[in-house]
Specification:
Number of strands: 0
Shape: globular
Structural class: mainly alpha
Number of helices: 6
Strand content: under 5%
């Protein structure tokens, strides 16, 4: 068998095999006390299953195109992250109360500083000037800043509950406001100003479809 065929099968087969393996490992270790080696194996398989899920989501997102593809990827990553956080909080007890807040803070820092910084650096090294859509970028940044301020900064200044936390009415208001804010952003991204979130050329115009990689077939997606 040619080497290219083997690489192709490995590239297309692992996102299917690894999640099935993860289910088997989960069934064998559920509710049991295992040693460090087995824990490391479970963590490795779990990481592979997460990467496989993201690979499936990316394939379908490429098929959908922008901006719905980016929205699908965001939902997929959010579901994975929330599932991991809830699992860790359920098993961690009172010591894991701040895990969700710390994880969200870390995600905001990694996205705004790490991912955006690397994207600007790579774009500047390749094109000398990084080109992006300022309208879409400004809308996304404003949404992230508003949500981060509402959920991470504002609890420090409230006095209804002890410590940097919301009281139940305040938490309900924050949750409702966050949902409305994100809903408005999604409406802007997908309906009202869809062109703000499409790739642009060095001249600032929306990039034509032919410059992108061919989307996968409906069967592959």
């Amino acid at each position: 068998m040619p080497r290219t065929d083997v690489r192709t099968r490995l590239a297309t087969g692992w996102p299917v095999v690894v999640p099935v393996l993860a289910v088997v490992v989960l069934a064998l270790t559920w509710g049991r006390h295992v040693g460090p080696v087995v824990v490391a194996l479970v963590a490795l398989v779990l990481a592979g299953a997460v990467l496989g899920a993201v690979q499936h989501a990316e394939l379908i997102a490429h098929r959908l195109g922008e901006p719905y593809g980016s929205l699908l990827l965001a939902v997929a990553v959010t579901v994975i992250e929330v599932a991991l956080i809830v699992t860790l909080m359920a098993s961690g007890g009172a010591k894991a109360e701040s895990l969700a807040r710390d994880t969200v803070f870390a995600a905001v820092m990694i996205t705004c500083n790490g991912i955006v910084g690397l994207a600007l650096l790579a774009g500047a090294r390749r094109f000398h000037v990084a080109h992006f859509n300022p309208e879409g970028t400004g809308a996304a940044l404003a949404t992230v800043v508003s949500l981060a301020t509402l959920s991470l900064v504002l609890p420090t200044f409230t006095s209804s509950a002890q410590g940097p936390r919301f009281s139940p009415p305040q938490l309900a208001f924050a949750a409702t406001a966050s949902l409305l804010l994100y809903g408005l952003f999604v409406l802007t991204q997908t309906v009202r100003h869809r062109d703000f979130f499409l790739p642009v050329t060095p001249t600032g115009e929306v990039a034509p479809e032919e410059v992108h990689a061919q989307p996968p077939t409906a069967r592959a997606a």
